[in-house]
Every structure is written in C-alpha cells, then in structure tokens.
Backbone:
C-alpha cells in the first residue's frame, strides 16, 4: 500500500510541476522549452536601437524597430500629451528602476518621468535627453516615420529622436516647421 501511495504522490507532484511550468511559459515569465538555449526570459526593460528609416538615418527605435518620437515642448519632462493624445502617441513605459539596454549608436541620456494616470496609478515613462518617449499609432510597421513633423498645437510638433544626440537641443531630428505627416493627432 505504501509503495502505491508514494508513486501516486510522485505522479501528482510531477503533474503539478508540469502545469506550473506550462503556465510560466504561456505567461511569458519563462522562456519556451523549444526556444534556443540562449533565449533569456522577458524583462520589462525595453531595448533601444539606432535605426534608419526610408527618409531619416540614425533614429531612435525600440526592439521591434519602430521609430520613437518626442513632443518638442515636453523638454525637461513636462507632459502635454494627455487624454485623447495618448490614443495616437503611446508612451514608452518602463518599470521603476529598470535600466533599458541600448544598441550601438544610442548615445543619449536615459531617465524617466512619472505619469499619473489616476489617483492610484502612476507609470514611469522613459525619457531620452529629458524628452518623454512615444511610439506613433500611425507607424504600422518597423522603420516608418509617419509621425515626423505632425503639428500637435500651433507651433508645437512631434519629431523623431536622433539616436546619437547627447543634448536635448540636438535630440529632435528636425526642428523647423512641419516636415511631413500633418493633420495633428
């Protein structure tokens, strides 16, 4: 009797372990068993890359090679894109205290700004040379720059981030007038 009970407990423990392992893979906490051995578990820290779009070289991009943007009057972390604006311009959030990885050619200073979404919900938006960082919903694939030069308000524009810029003044790819896009958000 004892032997049968122990074997049953071992099978039960193995089944519980397999279910927990599968749940971890599905949730993205653990790498898939058929992933390469070198694959690391997912983290909340983004990877920033220097990418070239069809029209602009050395643009800051995310790990999926989507272009990243700034709103030029948000220097220093002043958040003006709120409400409806956030439907088109998606903030790049990071976990508090995380350190994004950067690829070759990314030379700017990284930081965060707190974005209060509600009384109980504060998220941390990545900044690059003091500008809060966004993706644009109008970029439907990698290496697009459809948001470059879109006017947010009179005289206030969205710009791509220059990946090799080391100062706030050099961070926008262009700073004069609307160079494309148009139509606001």
Residues:
């Amino acid at each position: 009797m004892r032997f049968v009970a122990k074997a049953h407990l071992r099978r039960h423990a193995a089944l519980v372990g397999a279910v927990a392992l599968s749940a971890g893979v599905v949730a993205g906490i653990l790498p898939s068993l058929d992933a390469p051995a070198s694959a690391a578990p997912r983290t909340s820290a983004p990877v920033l890359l220097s990418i070239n779009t069809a029209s602009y070289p050395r643009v800051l991009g995310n790990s999926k090679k989507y272009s990243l943007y700034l709103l030029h009057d948000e220097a220093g972390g002043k958040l003006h894109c709120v409400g409806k604006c956030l439907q088109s311009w998606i903030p790049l959030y990071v976990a508090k205290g995380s350190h994004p990885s950067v690829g070759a050619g990314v030379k700017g200073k990284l930081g965060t700004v707190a974005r209060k979404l509600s009384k109980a919900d504060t998220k941390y938006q990545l900044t690059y040379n003091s500008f809060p960082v966004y993706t644009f919903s109008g970029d439907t694939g990698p290496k697009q720059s459809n948001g470059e030069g879109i006017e947010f308000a009179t005289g206030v524009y969205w710009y791509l981030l220059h990946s090799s810029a080391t100062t706030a003044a050099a961070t926008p790819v262009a700073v004069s007038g609307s160079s494309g896009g148009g139509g606001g958000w």
Summary: Helices lie at 2-27, 85-88. The first strand starts at residue 47 and ends at 51.
